[in-house]
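Hi all, posting the design record for the shared folder.

TITLE: backbone redesign
STEP: 1 of 1
STRUCTURE INPUT:
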């Protein structure tokens, strides 16, 4: 895999991870909600115009374009497992920004993910 292909994959993965984090930040602002017939429109509008959620959706759109470019250069059997890097990024950023727990079992799982990504990229 050349540097451009790797950069496209990494950028796509990081944008996808950023999208998830922005969506979480947006739902934190909106608060807990459930959709019912009576609140679909008010909650839907609140979510649609929440800046973090709009940013997350924008990240998804850009990541999709970049991901398609990456898939045109790299076999899907190599590219797709690299999405796992997003789990690692999200776990550490969620720990920092949202105070989510990073227990030993989660860290062990992250270690397995990192080893798996290394093995896939070297194949």
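Okay, here is what came back for every position:
SEQUENCE:
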């Amino acid at each position: 895999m050349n540097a451009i292909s790797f950069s496209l994959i990494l950028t796509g993965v990081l944008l996808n991870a950023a999208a998830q984090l922005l969506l979480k930040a947006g739902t934190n602002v909106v608060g807990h909600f459930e959709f019912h017939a009576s609140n679909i429109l008010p909650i839907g509008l609140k979510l649609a115009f929440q800046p973090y959620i709009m940013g997350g959706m924008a990240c998804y759109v850009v990541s999709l374009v970049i991901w398609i470019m990456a898939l045109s250069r790299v076999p899907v059997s190599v590219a797709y497992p690299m999405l796992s890097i997003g789990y690692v990024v999200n776990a550490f950023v969620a720990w920092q920004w949202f105070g989510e727990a990073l227990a030993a079992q989660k860290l062990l799982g992250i270690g397995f993910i990192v080893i798996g990504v290394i093995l896939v990229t070297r194949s």
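COMMENT: The CA atoms of residues 30 and 46 lie 7 Å apart.
Let me know if anyone wants the other runs.
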